[in-house]
UniProtKB/TrEMBL annotation:
Nitroreductase domain location: 323-525
Annotated protein name in UniProt: Nitroreductase family protein
Length: 545
C-alpha cells in the first residue's frame, strides 16, 4: 500500500479534529441564501416517477429482525418505489416563517445531503396493477420527485438490481470546511443502513460488492466531464463510495453488475454557481483513500440479541417508523430512559446474522460504543462500554486508563450483553456538554454515545480505504440508534461536532496513541418539539389528482 496515501489519511484525520482550544478549519461566514442546491439533476435525462411507498400495515418493526418473517416481494415498480422512498426519499417538508425545507428518511449532517444514489437495472418484473416496467438502464435517483432519471442503457444479461452511492463533497464543505469529508462518509453509512432497513420491509437485503474508486466512477459515467460542462465551469463532481447488489430471495447470491453502454444522456446541474471557499485537503484525502474496496474476510456474526428481549406491545409499522425518523433539536432535560429501552438499544448495536443493517456492514466490527448513561433507570450515571466483537475488550483494556473499573452490569446479566461500567460520573451533564462542542444536546440527553474505532488496525489491514470504512461503519451504527430511539418513543441526533482528543483524554488514552480514535457521537432523549415549525406531507404534489 502506498505509504504516502496512508500519511495523507493520517494527516487529514489529525488536522480535521476539533480541539478544546480551536475548531477545525471552516468557513468564516455563511450566506444561507447561497446554500448549494440539495437536488442533483441530470437535465435532458428521461424521468420516470415511482409509486409512493405504503406506510401502513405489515411488516411490523420487530419482523425485520426475524430472518424469513417477511415474505419476499417481486422486484417491480411498486417494490422499487418503496425501497427508494423509505431508504432515501423525503420524509416531510418543514416550514417556519418564510423558510421551507425538506427532511429525508436518511439523515445528513446539517441536513445538507451529499449522498446520491444510482441504479443499474435489468429485467424488472411488470407491475401487477399497472403493468408498467422500467427499461434496462443506468438510473439516477431524484428524491424530490421520487423519480428515476435514465442516463444510459446497460449490457444485456440476467435480471437484477444494483445500487451505488456517491458523495458530493461540496454540499458539506460549504458549511463545515475541512471536516466535511468525515461527514460525507458518515452520511454514506447512514444511507446504506437506511436502504438495508427499507429492503427488509420487502423481504430483501443488500450485498456489498468489492468495487470502488475509478472503476465504479467509470461504471456510473462520473468520469464524463462533458456531462458536467457549463459555460462557467464544471458541475460539482460526485465521489464513488460503494456498490451493492440486491438479493431478493432467501439464500440468493449477488451477480456482477452490468456495464452501461456509450449512449449517455443528460447533463449534471451546478449546485453552487459562486463557491466562496476551496478546501484542497478534502480532494487530497479523497484521492488517497479511494483505492478499491475489497471483499471482507469470512466472519460469522452471532444470532440477534434482540431475540433475548421481550417484544414491545403494539409494535409500530416498520415503514411508518422509518418515515417518522427525525433529528432532535432539543431534549427534555428531566426525562429518563427505561432500562428496557436502553437494553434494546444496546442489543440492536450488536452485529447479527441475516438482519438489517448488518448485511451491508463492511465485515468484522471495528467500531465499539462508549455509552454515557446520564438518566437511565437502574444505572448510575457514568461511562459504559459495549465491545461489539470478541477480543475488542482486551484491546480496549490495553489502550484505556488502567484505573477504569471494567465492571459488569448485574441488571443486564440475563441479556448476555457484554456491557461494562468503566467509571461513574455524577456530574455527567457538564462533561457531555463540553465534549459535544458545548451543545445542550449533550447535557440534556438521557444517553450519549461515543463511537471508538480501531483506527491503526483498520489502516494496517485495509490500507487508506479503511478510513472510509470506519466512518461508514459509524454512520451505520448511527442509523441503528436513530431508528431504535424512534421505536422506543424517543429521538436521537447525530453529533458531528465533538472534541476528539478531549474524549480520548477522558478515557485515559495516551497523547499521540492512535490505536483507537473517536469518529462519531450520538445522543438520545425525549424530544422537545418546536410548535413554531409546521410539517407538510413529503409528496403532496404527487398525491394531488
Amino acid at each position: 500500500m502506498p505509504t504516502d496515501d496512508l500519511a495523507t489519511v493520517r494527516s487529514y484525520h489529525a488536522r480535521s479534529k476539533h480541539q478544546l482550544q480551536r475548531y477545525a478549519a471552516g468557513p468564516e461566514t455563511l450566506d444561507w441564501d447561497a446554500q448549494p442546491s440539495p437536488w442533483r439533476r441530470y437535465d435532458g435525462a428521461p424521468l420516470s416517477a415511482l409509486p409512493l411507498p405504503e406506510l401502513d400495515g405489515a411488516p411490523a418493526w420487530p419482523a425485520l429482525f426475524s430472518p424469513g418473517a417477511v415474505p419476499s416481494k417481486p422486484l417491480d415498480l411498486r417494490g422499487l418505489g418503496q425501497l427508494l422512498g423509505l431508504g432515501l426519499g423525503l420524509a416531510a417538508w418543514k416550514q417556519q416563517g418564510p423558510d421551507r425545507w425538506a427532511v429525508r428518511c436518511n439523515p445528513s449532517s446539517g441536513n445538507l445531503h451529499p449522498t446520491e444514489a444510482w441504479l443499474l437495472l435489468r429485467g424488472m418484473a411488470p407491475d401487477p396493477q399497472s403493468g408498467g416496467v422500467l427499461p434496462d438502464g443506468l438510473y439516477h435517483y431524484a428524491p424530490r420527485d421520487h423519480a428515476l432519471e435514465r442516463r444510459a442503457s446497460v449490457t444485456p444479461g440476467p435480471a437484477g438490481l444494483w445500487l451505488a452511492l456517491t458523495s458530493i463533497h461540496w454540499r458539506e464543505a460549504w458549511k463545515y470546511g475541512e471536516r466535511a469529508f468525515r461527514y460525507c462518509q458518515l452520511d454514506a453509512g447512514h444511507a446504506a443502513a437506511s436502504l438495508d432497513y427499507a429492503a427488509a420491509t420487502l423481504g430483501w437485503h443488500w450485498q456489498p460488492l468489492p468495487e470502488a474508486g475509478e472503476r465504479l466512477a467509470q461504471r456510473l459515467g462520473l468520469d464524463r466531464d462533458a456531462d458536467r460542462a457549463h459555460p462557467r465551469g464544471l458541475a460539482e463532481p460526485e465521489e464513488p463510495e460503494g456498490l451493492f447488489a440486491l438479493v431478493t430471495t432467501p439464500g440468493g447470491m449477488a451477480m456482477p453488475a452490468p456495464q452501461p453502454l456509450d449512449d449517455f444522456v443528460g447533463r449534471a446541474n451546478r449546485l453552487d454557481p459562486h463557491p466562496m471557499y476551496r478546501w484542497p485537503v478534502i480532494d487530497a484525502v479523497a484521492n488517497a483513500s479511494r483505492g478499491s474496496a475489497t471483499a471482507p474476510p469470512p466472519w460469522a456474526p452471532p444470532a440477534s440479541r434482540l431475540e433475548l428481549l421481550p417484544e414491545r406491545a403494539d409494535p409500530p409499522s416498520a415503514a411508518a417508523l422509518m418515515r417518522q425518523r427525525r433529528s432532535a433539536q432539543r431534549f427534555d432535560r428531566t426525562a429518563r430512559m427505561p432500562l428496557a429501552a436502553f437494553a434494546r438499544l444496546c442489543a440492536a448495536l450488536m452485529p447479527a446474522v441475516g438482519v438489517p443493517p448488518w448485511t451491508v456492514a463492511p465485515g468484522r466490527p471495528r467500531v465499539h460504543p462508549v455509552l454515557f448513561a446520564h438518566r437511565v433507570d437502574g444505572l448510575e450515571p457514568g461511562a459504559y462500554v459495549l465491545p461489539r466483537e470478541h477480543g475488542a475488550a482486551a484491546r480496549l483494556v490495553e489502550a484505556l486508563s488502567p484505573e477504569l473499573l471494567w465492571k459488569p452490569v448485574p441488571l443486564l446479566a440475563s441479556t448476555g450483553l457484554p456491557l461494562q461500567l468503566l467509571a461513574p460520573n455524577p456530574a455527567l451533564a457538564g462533561t457531555l456538554r463540553t465534549l459535544c462542542c458545548h451543545q445542550a444536546l449533550g447535557s440534556d440527553a438521557m444517553l450519549a454515545v461515543a463511537l471508538l474505532a480501531e483506527f491503526d488496525a483498520a489502516l494496517a489491514s485495509d490500507g487508506p480505504h479503511g478510513y472510509r470504512q470506519l466512518l461508514q461503519e459509524c454512520g451505520l451504527l448511527g442509523q441503528v440508534l436513530y431508528l431504535e430511539a424512534e421505536a422506543a418513543g424517543l429521538r436521537g441526533t447525530g453529533i458531528g461536532c465533538f472534541f476528539d482528543d478531549g474524549l480520548h483524554q477522558l478515557l485515559g488514552m495516551a497523547d499521540g496513541d492512535t490505536r483507537w480514535q473517536s469518529l462519531y457521537h450520538f445522543t438520545v432523549g425525549a424530544p422537545v418539539v418546536d410548535d413554531r415549525i409546521s410539517t407538510e406531507p413529503p409528496y403532496a404534489h404527487r398525491e394531488t389528482p
